[in-house]
């Protein structure tokens, strides 16, 4: 992209737009940014690192520049109403299929917040009211919301967590997470990711219940239906 093609008369904004446009095509090293934008190496580095501080630009596991998480959060916010509208029927169907309580969690800073839920109608329940917030250090939903994060937030999130990098590697490989007694003794859960059109994880669908019902391997029974429910919500986000 040539700066002259998008000139607004505000040089720093034009250069920023060129960098963001280059990263929209995929990850880039500093040398790659220089080649793609025509900016000098010092200018490209200065602007890219400044954008990184504002979370408009991030880094991948190879240290390359990528579009940052704030863009995903803005996109998620714009589609949140549609996601929440779709969540009710999907969570209810998942509850009826599994016989267990179901929730939808979104990340807010260092917490995950329940933004929708369908509670089990009888018997021993794990009630999670909408608006409940839990630390990002425990639970299968936290694993899902952290597993695909940008490196800086990923490594920060692992500090003091009840799960490890090896656990999250397994989450990425399988496409779902499980936990036993992390958030509350005697409780288990299975979670799967909801993604935006850029494939970034924006929410986690969770099935929760006592270990005595879910067993110590809850994913064996619940992973497929949790993933199917999350995929339906992903489709709803894409359609918004």
Kindly report how far apart the N and C termini lie.
29 Å
Q: What percent strand?
A: 15-25%
Task: Compute the CA-based radius of gyration.
Answer: 20 Å
Uncertain residue ranges: none
CATH superfamily of the largest domain: GAF domain
Which shape, going by the Cα principal axes?
elongated
In total, the number of domains comes to 2
- Total helical elements: 9
The assigned CATH architecture of the largest domain is: 2-Layer Sandwich
Helix share bin: 40-55%
CATH class of the largest domain: Alpha Beta
Looking at the structure, the CATH topology of the largest domain is: Beta-Lactamase
Overall pLDDT score = 87
Q: How is the main sheet built?
A: 6 strands, antiparallel
Beta strand count:
8
Strand order of the largest sheet: 5-4-3-8-7-6
The SSE order reads HHHEEHEEEHHHEEEHH
Protein name: IclR family transcriptional regulator
GO molecular function: DNA binding; DNA-binding transcription factor activity
Keywords: DNA-binding, Transcription, Transcription regulation
Organism: Streptomyces xanthii
Task: Describe this structure in a few short sentences.
Pfam families: HTH_IclR, IclR_C. This protein is of the alpha+beta class and 240 residues long. It has helices spanning 11-23, 30-37, 41-53, 69-98, 140-147, 151-158, 165-174, 211-214, 219-239; strands at residues 57-59, 65-67, 101-108, 111-118, 133-135, 177-180, 187-195, 201-210.
């Amino acid at each position: 992209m040539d700066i002259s093609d998008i000139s607004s008369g505000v040089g720093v904004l034009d250069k920023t737009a060129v960098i963001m446009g280059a990263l929209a095509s995929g990850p880039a090293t500093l040398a790659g940014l220089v080649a793609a934008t025509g900016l000098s190496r010092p200018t490209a580095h200065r602007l890219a690192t400044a954008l990184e501080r504002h979370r408009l630009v991030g880094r991948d596991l190879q240290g390359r520049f990528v579009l940052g998480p704030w863009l995903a959060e803005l996109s998620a916010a714009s589609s949140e109403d549609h996601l929440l509208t779709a969540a009710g029927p999907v969570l209810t169907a998942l509850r009826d299929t599994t016989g267990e309580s179901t929730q939808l969690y979104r990340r807010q800073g260092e917490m995950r917040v329940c933004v929708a839920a369908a509670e089990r109608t009888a018997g021993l329940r794990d009630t999670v009211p909408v608006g409940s917030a839990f630390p990002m250090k425990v639970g299968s939903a936290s694993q899902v919301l952290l597993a695909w994060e940008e490196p800086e937030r990923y490594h920060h999130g692992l500090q003091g967590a009840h799960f490890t990098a090896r656990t999250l590697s397994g989450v990425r490989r399988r496409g779902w997470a499980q936990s036993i007694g992390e958030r509350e003794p005697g409780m288990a859960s299975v979670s799967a990711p909801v993604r935006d059109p850029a494939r970034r994880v924006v929410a986690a669908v969770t099935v929760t219940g006592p270990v005595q019902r879910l067993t110590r391997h809850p994913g064996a029974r619940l992973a497929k239906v949790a993933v199917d429910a999350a995929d339906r919500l992903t489709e709803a986000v894409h359609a918004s």
